[in-house]
Design a protein that fits this description.
By secondary structure, this protein is α/β, with parallel strands linked by helices. It contains 6 helices and 9 strands; from the N terminus they run H-E-E-H-E-H-H-E-E-H-E-H-E-E-E. The chain is globular. The mean pLDDT is 94.
Length: 188
């Protein structure tokens, strides 16, 4: 089942489509993070304010280096030492859809610890948007069975893998890391 999901999800994202998929934290809505039109579709689907940045997933720190002008040394340690998923907000993102970026061209990037999302990023050969599978302002669903039918019907592909999984997962820590290694913890 995983192989078929990977194949179909990657094909959809390469065409500019959006998917509903499991991540290392919760179920997410995603697309190719370099495709502005696809990113705009997610903002529209979620009814999310366009000034609210969305994070992206990659499969390794090597991938982070492709999309951030200069990675502070501390980022490697934070990623390696964190016991739970950690999203790091970097300044000066490059090569990503501009709609994803915040102040100072900042972007939140998480190196996924989940085999499925790692392989999804590797096969797409690009970072993937990851935003909670809900309409803005509504509670974030922890499990697939909590996702609204409106969301399920609005995406181009719904991944089957892990739909029955009800293992509780932690949200990621969110840390802002400036190029001079100043750390600001946004969510522990």
């Amino acid at each position: 089942m995983m192989e078929e999901d990977l194949k179909r999800a990657v094909a959809i994202m390469k065409k500019g489509g959006i998917i509903l998929y499991p991540t290392d934290t919760i179920w997410g809505i995603g697309c190719d993070a370099t495709n502005s039109d696809a990113v705009k579709k997610i903002y529209s689907l979620k009814k999310r304010a366009e000034n609210k940045a969305m994070l992206v997933l990659v499969s390794s720190m090597d991938d982070v280096e492709k999309y951030v002008e200069k990675i502070p040394d501390m980022a490697f340690s934070l990623n390696d030492l964190s016991e739970k998923p950690v999203t790091i907000i970097y300044d000066n993102a490059i090569g990503l859809a501009p709609e994803l970026l915040g102040d100072n061209n900042s972007v939140g990037i998480r190196v996924s610890r989940d085999v499925f999302t790692q392989r999804l990023c590797q096969q797409l050969r690009r970072p993937i948007v990851s935003t909670s599978a809900n309409i803005a302002g509504m509670p974030s669903p922890s499990f697939f069975n909590e996702i609204s039918e409106d969301i399920k019907n609005a995406v181009d592909y719904v991944v089957s893998y892990r739909q029955e999984d009800c293992t509780p997962r932690q949200p990621s820590s969110i840390i802002k890391l400036s190029t001079d290694n100043v750390i600001k913890i946004i969510r522990p």
